[in-house]
Amino acid sequence: MPKTIVVTLLATALAAGTPSAIAHTGEVDFPPTAMVSDTTGTIADRYIVMLKDTGTDRHGDMDDVLTAATERASGMGALVHHVYRHALHGYAASMTASTAAALALDPQVQSVQPDRVVRATDQSVPTGVNRVDADLSPTAAIDGVDTRVNTDVAVLDTGISTSHPDLNVNRSGGVNCWMPFLPPNDYHGHGTHVAGTIGALDNGTGVVGVAPGVRLWPVQVLSPLGMGSTSTVLCGIDYVTQHADQIKVANMSLGGSGADDGNCGKTSNDAMHQAICNSVAKGVTYTVAAGNSHADAKNTVPAAYDEVITVSALADFDGKPGGLAGPTCRDDQDDTLADFSNFGSDIDLIAPGVCIRSTYLNGGYTTLSGTSMAAPHAAGGAALYLATHPTASPQTVKAALQNAGSLDWAWPSQDGDAVKERLLKVSPF
User: Fold this and answer.
1) Which helix (H) or strand (E) holds 232?
2) I want to staple 126 with a disulfide (CB 3.0 to 4.6 A). Which of 72, 94, 236, 357 is the partner?
3) What are the residues whose beta carbons fall under 8 Å from the beta carbon of 417, sequence distance 6 or more?
4) How many other CB atoms sit within 10 Å of the CB of residue 282?
5) Which DSSP string do the residues of 176-204 spell out, in sequence order?
6) Got the DSSP string for 61-95?
7) H and E: helices and strands count for the chain
8) Identified catalytic residue from 188, 190, 273, 377
């Protein structure tokens, strides 16, 4: 049985399990607190079943395999919640431990793993757009005139407030993996805040994002309480992969414990890793939060995965280098690694993540802190690059962001390793 993962939103933010939005039953996809293990984060009697790769791309054949597999599980008393057809092949279901054990012996099954909890834990927010030089980007063209960046970005989070006047939300797209028959509207605030940092409109009011006016796809994988599960996150990744011809960037400001097996989950049967690897292969660039435990990110997923862009948080209170500003919304040292941020060799970039002001619920704005706030700066940077390099691969996008980065921030300060990550700079894009 693979190692379980507990996932947390990182306003302080990480990314955890991965869900898929293909076939849902309509049942609420988050259990009562009493059903959740306090020690492992696993959800009682909930499992993710991954099928073996059949070696064929014929959609009809795989549909037949999935139909037969889910019917077999239903016949054994399982209640199927999600079916995954794009990022991986499999399903999520409620079942007894004995049924799970029996299914694990099926020759068509690659692995059966427990479903796990994901949750949001917000902190506090502001000057990131200035610090990453988005105002100097010719593609962002920030001048108070509503000219929109031509890229599509998915936000895997608590949803997005679709009525916020400062956001260009794709109302005909998106999915609610937590409550499948409701629209992916945000009643928590975290996802809307992340969305604003990525692409709030350059319309002369409110705030402006790194890539103003990008088309934002709300992919709700967490409940209004900021809670979710591996199956719902997998649902989100599956949906993004299904729409990879349109969605080019996906931000995951959420996460949990785990490690990179170095083989896209094929060695450890890590469903989330396999799903992300397959999605990246379809051309989707993933930006993810490093985590807020002030520890090595190698023990956090998806931050530990090599296929994503993992972003740590910079404490910056004035949008300028030099470390001269005093703290604002929370105590920290200006121009240093945030005192909560994860670090380590898996970090690909550092971006502002302390006292970030962005869009919020009811058409408003607020300030939050965390690696959840750092990752969307990189998502905006990726969107800017792809607007002028639409065929660039995720690997090329990652290299471009790193090559354009700056070392102009104080170090080692609170950093726990011997590597100084490059600070996101988007002015060349």
Assistant:
1) helix 230-242
2) 357
3) 296, 343, 344, 345
4) 16
5) ESSSTTS----SSSHHHHHHHHHH---SS
6) HHHHHHHHHHHHHHHTT-EEEEEE-SSSSEEEEE-
7) 8, 20
8) 190
Alpha-carbon distance 292 to 100, whole Å?
A: 33
Reported as a single tens digit per residue, the pLDDT across 127-164 is: 889 999 999 999 999 888 889 999 999 999 999 999 99
Q: What's the confidence (pLDDT) of residue 29?
A: 27
User: Is 190 one of the catalytic residues?
Assistant: yes
Annotated catalytic residue within 82, 243, 372, 415: 372
CA dihedral 204, 205, 206, 211 (to 10 degrees): -30
pLDDT for position 144: 86
Intervals of the chain under pLDDT 70: 1-40, 54-60, 118-126, 413
From the list 94, 99, 90, 98, the residue with the least C-alpha distance to 271 is 90
Backbone phi, psi, residue 215, to 5° = -75, 120
Residue 322 is classified by DSSP as S
Catalytic residue flag (residue 339): no
Decide if 372 is catalytic.
Answer: yes
User: Which token pair is 285?
Assistant: 């660039």
Candidate list 45, 133, 152, 157, residue with the active-site label:
157
**Residue-wise pLDDT tens digits, 4-54:** 333 456 664 333 333 222 221 122 222 232 333 344 578 889 999 999 986
The two structure tokens encoding residue 387: 């607007």
pLDDT at residue 53 in the model = 81
Please check whether residue 247 is in contact with residue 260, taking contact to mean a CB–CB distance below 8 angstroms: no
Between CA 304 and CA 237 the distance in angstroms is 17
